[in-house]
C-alpha cells in the first residue's frame, strides 16, 4: 500500500516526467523485440505522422473534459468531415484552399451544434456524443455511398504526406528553442517582479538544456529520413497555440474554472453556457483538421475512417493526466498520451500482435490511468 501511495504521489507531482519515462520504457521494449527496427528514422516518422491525428482530437478533447463534459462523436465526425473533403475534391474539383475552408467551417458548425444541445438544451454530453456518433456515421455512409473515395488533388494529398525541407525544419527548431528561452526568462522576471518564489537558475538552465537535446534529437532523426512531416508541424502549432490559450488568456482560465466549480463560476458573472458551447465548437474544428489530415494521409476518404477515434482521444487525455472530474489537465500531457497510444499501436503491429491483444492492452492502460486519477483525487480530500 505504501508503494502505491508513493507511486501516485510521484505521478501527481511529476506527471510529464512520468509519461516521458513510460515512453522511454515502451520504446526500449519494442526496439528490443523488433531488433532495433522500431527506432529507425522511417518508423519514427510514420509513428509521429500517425500520432498527429489522434493528438489533434486529444487537443480539443482535453478542454472538453477539463470543463466537465465528454464528446463521443469525434471519431464519426472526423470520418464525416474527411469524407466530405474527399467528395468536394473528386466530385466538385474544388481548390484545396477552398475545400479546407469549407470543411473547417462545417466542423465548427457541427461542434457548435453539439455544444448547443449540451450547454443550452441541457442534454447530457454523453448522450449528445452517443447520438452524434450514430448520426455522423450514418451521414458519412450516405455521403460516400459506403465506398472508398480516392483523392485526386496532389496539393490535398501533400497536406498529409509531404515533408518540410530539411533547412526549414532546422530553422524552425532554432526558432522554437529561442522562443522557449525568451518565455522562460520572461516568466522568471515576472516572478521576481511580483516577489514570488523563483526556481534556482541552474534548475531552469537544466530544463532548457534538456529541451534543447530533445528538439535537436527530434529534428535530426526526422531529417535523416525525409524531414518533418507536415501533420507533425500542424500538431506542434496546435500544441503551442492551445497551451498559450490555456495559460495566458481569460478564456483559458474560464475553462478550468468551469470544470473546477461550475456554480461558483456562473455566479461570478461568467457565461458558462457560452464557454461550453465554444469548447465543443473548438472540438469540431479539431475533428475537421484531423479528418482532412487523415484523408490526405491515406489519399482517400473511407466510410470506416475515424472508427474508435473517440476512444483513442479520450484515452490520450486520461493517460496524459487530465482529470476525469474536470478542472485539471494540459495539452502537452494529452499529446504525450497520444504518443503513448500511437507507440503501442505501432509497436504491437510491428510485432504482429493479434488485434484482440492490442485492444486488451490499450483498455488496461486506460483503466490504470483512470484508477491513478481516482486514487490521487481520494488522497487530496
Automatic annotation (TrEMBL):
UniProt keyword annotation of Iron present: no
Record keywords, A-Z: Cell inner membrane, Cell membrane, Membrane, Sugar transport, Transmembrane, Transmembrane helix, Transport
Primary residence: membrane
One of the Pfam families matching this protein, by short name: BPD_transp_2
Membrane-topology annotation of the record: Multi-pass membrane protein
Localisation: Cell membrane
Protein purpose: Part of the binding-protein-dependent transport system for D-xylose. Probably responsible for the translocation of the substrate across the membrane.
Record protein name field: Xylose transport system permease protein XylH
Species this chain originates from: Uliginosibacterium aquaticum
Amino acid at each position: 500500500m505504501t508503494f502505491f501511495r508513493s507511486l501516485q504521489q510521484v505521478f501527481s507531482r511529476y506527471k510529464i516526467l512520468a509519461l516521458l519515462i513510460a515512453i522511454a520504457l515502451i520504446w526500449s521494449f519494442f526496439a528490443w523485440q523488433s531488433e532495433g527496427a522500431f527506432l529507425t528514422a522511417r518508423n519514427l516518422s510514420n509513428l509521429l505522422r500517425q500520432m498527429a491525428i489522434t493528438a489533434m482530437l486529444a487537443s480539443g478533447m482535453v478542454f472538453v473534459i477539463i470543463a466537465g463534459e465528454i464528446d463521443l462523436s469525434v471519431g464519426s465526425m472526423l470520418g464525416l468531415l474527411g469524407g466530405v473533403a474527399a467528395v468536394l475534391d473528386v466530385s466538385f474539383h474544388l481548390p484545396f484552399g477552398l475545400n479546407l475552408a469549407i470543411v473547417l467551417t462545417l466542423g465548427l458548425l457541427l461542434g457548435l451544434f453539439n455544444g448547443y444541445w449540451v450547454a443550452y438544451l441541457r442534454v447530457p454530453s454523453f448522450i449528445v456524443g452517443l447520438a452524434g456518433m450514430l448520426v455522423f456515421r450514418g451521414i458519412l455512409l450516405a455521403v460516400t455511398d459506403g465506398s472508398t473515395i480516392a483523392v485526386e488533388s496532389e496539393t490535398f494529398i501533400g497536406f498529409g504526406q509531404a515533408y518540410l525541407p530539411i533547412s526549414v525544419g532546422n530553422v524552425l527548431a532554432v526558432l522554437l528553442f529561442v522562443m522557449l528561452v525568451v518565455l522562460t526568462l520572461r516568466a522568471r522576471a515576472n516572478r521576481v517582479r511580483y516577489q514570488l518564489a523563483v526556481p534556482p537558475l541552474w534548475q531552469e538552465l537544466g530544463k532548457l538544456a534538456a529541451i534543447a537535446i530533445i528538439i535537436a534529437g527530434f529534428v535530426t532523426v526526422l531529417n535523416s529520413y525525409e524531414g518533418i512531416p507536415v501533420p507533425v508541424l500542424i500538431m506542434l502549432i496546435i500544441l503551442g497555440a492551445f497551451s498559450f490559450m490555456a495559460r495566458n488568456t481569460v478564456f483559458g482560465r474560464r475553462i478550468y474554472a468551469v470544470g473546477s466549480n461550475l456554480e461558483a463560476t456562473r455566479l461570478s458573472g461568467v457565461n458558462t453556457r457560452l464557454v461550453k458551447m465554444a469548447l465543443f465548437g473548438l472540438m469540431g474544428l479539431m475533428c475537421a483538421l484531423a479528418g482532412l489530415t487523415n484523408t490526405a494521409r491515406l489519399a482517400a476518404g473511407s466510410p470506416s475512417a475515424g472508427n474508435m477515434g473517440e476512444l483513442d482521444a479520450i484515452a490520450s487525455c486520461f493517460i496524459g493526466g487530465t482529470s476525469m472530474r474536470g478542472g485539471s489537465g494540459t495539452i502537452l500531457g494529452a499529446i504525450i498520451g497520444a504518443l503513448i497510444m500511437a507507440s503501442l499501436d505501432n509497436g504491437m503491429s510491428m510485432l504482429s500482435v493479434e488485434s484482440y491483444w492490442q485492444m486488451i492492452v490499450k483498455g488496461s492502460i486506460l483503466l490504470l490511468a483512470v484508477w491513478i486519477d481516482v486514487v490521487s483525487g481520494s488522497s487530496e480530500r
